[in-house]
Amino acid sequence: MFNRRLEAILGITDLHSEHDLTRLVEKHLPLSSVESLLAHGVTHAEIYKLIVPRRTLARRKSRHESLTRDESDRAIRVARIISQAEEAFGNDTNAAHWLRSSKTRLEGRTPLEMLRTETGARIVEKMLLQLDYGFAA
Description:
0% strand, mainly alpha
């Protein structure tokens, strides 16, 4: 068991390593992963901004298609950060509040807004690690 929280957020089971996540991206996540993200508090607007545009998602649903490799990668990025935030804050409510609150350190942007890029996600990960270890973020 690699990360139960991440499994739950993505609606995927049997994650044992980062390699499993890589394989999931390469195989393309099912649309049910988007539904699972929504069930875990990610809003439709956040899905559309961070993972897949609204019209594209509607088209994928109507054609019963999976997410693309890039969309799968972005979905895992969002799930990974949410999982890490929940771990750092101890619960999903506090994590969601922190992820949606603007930060001076992020030039007034929210941590979720930073997830549009991998570089931004790394900055957020670093902040969460610092919080987890007791440093001010």
